[in-house]
Design goal:
Number of helices: 14
Distance between the termini: 15 Å
Number of strands: 0
Number of domains: 1
Largest sheet: none
Helix content: over 70%
Strand content: under 5%
Radius of gyration: 20 Å
Shape: globular
Structural class: mainly alpha
Order of helices and strands: HHHHHHHHHHHHHH
Oligomer: single chain
Length: 341
């Protein structure tokens, strides 16, 4: 394992920039519905690209898989499937709660659990003293950053809905059910990182067979993302049949390109995150995940600002957004410092 925290943080920052903007091309889709876009996105990002990268960068890939026990392959596969379910629940939660509340609950839980679970399960003996204090402080401030960012987003949404004379708020009972669904989604959302973290037996076997440590993580993604592919593709097929939108594929036009670009940005971000974990050292799949989530949130938020989403937002919402981004910046510094040994 090559330990270079500066390289690691730089790579995870670029990964966050890519992930934070990966959904932006969807705004330019014109004739396709969501399920059309998501089907192409899922096939390219969860199947084609992971396998292509693994075949090119991991020598003797099939031999690596054949050398492993079934349990070592099943764990990342099943965890990836759990993340795939969370992907679907995220869309439903946003629709029922709005982006601000859903984002705060789901991303907040996902960032915290995705950082702490691998850290405490795999490296609990190493998390002691000053490093532990700095990392946990960074996680707490990260939660604050997500909360304030989500709160500011909620105020912006409410203001936009009032101006448009619309409201999508469910009843009190329905709201409680929607919050519960978002919590379940938040608990499952970090399963993609669990899949990568607890699928490191695959990477270790690749290294044993002579694959450079920097490339070994590419052997994990085809297994992890195959699990996520199943629920995503099943939901797309259901919507395509329900809404009768199969016919939209007859004239793909530029929408196919936008969907593919989404996939390239997303899978590119995961590939870089996997490489950054190698450079960040023993805490790479925990601290690295926290940094990845922070940079992704900041990028997505700032992209919204630059595309005019916050143009008419109330000052209170903009102020909370500023507080949230400041917290995330401080959390970035603390997590990076906690990882230095």
């Amino acid at each position: 394992m090559t330990y270079n925290p500066l390289y690691g943080v730089t790579l995870v920052m670029v990964a966050g920039l890519m992930a934070g903007n990966c959904m932006l091309p969807m705004k330019f889709a014109r004739s396709w519905r969501w399920e059309n876009v998501w089907l192409v996105f899922s096939v390219v990002s969860l199947m084609i690209l992971p396998w292509a990268l693994a075949i090119v960068l991991v020598n003797h890939l099939l031999d690596v898989y054949l050398a492993l026990q079934l349990r070592q392959l099943a764990i990342p596969l099943l965890l990836g499937a759990g993340w795939g379910v969370a992907q679907i629940l995220f869309g439903i939660s946003v629709n029922r709660l709005g982006m601000g509340v859903a984002y705060a609950i789901i991303v907040g839980l996902g960032a915290v659990l995705g950082t702490l679970v691998p850290l405490l399960v795999q490296h609990h003996a190493a998390v002691t003293g000053h490093a532990a204090y700095v990392i946990f402080s960074g996680v707490v401030i990260m939660v604050g950053g997500v909360f304030f960012t989500g709160w500011g987003g909620k105020i912006r949404e409410d203001s936009s809905n009032s101006a448009a004379g619309t409201s999508n708020r469910p009843s009190r009972q329905g709201y409680a059910a929607a919050v519960l669904l978002a919590i379940i989604c938040g608990l499952m959302a970090p399963m993609l990182n669990y899949s990568f973290a607890f699928g490191q037996d695959i990477a270790k076997e690749a290294v044993r067979m002579g694959v450079p440590a920097l490339h070994a993580g590419y052997a994990v993604w085809p297994v992890a993302l195959a699990g996520g592919f199943i629920p995503n593709i099943a939901y797309c097929l259901y919507l395509l049949s329900k809404n009768g939108t199969w016919k939209s594929f007859r004239s793909p036009g530029p929408d196919f390109g936008w969907s593919s670009l989404m996939a390239v940005l997303w899978m590119g971000s995961m590939a870089l995150y996997g490489m950054s974990a190698s450079y960040l050292g023993v805490f790479g799949t925990s601290v690295g995940w926290g940094l990845f989530q922070i940079f992704m949130i900041m990028t997505a938020t700032l992209s919204g600002v630059l595309t005019g989403e916050w143009k008419r937002a109330p000052r209170r919402g903009i102020g909370l957004l500023g507080v949230g981004l400041s917290c995330l910046t401080v959390a970035t510094v603390l997590l990076a410092l906690g990882n230095i040994r």
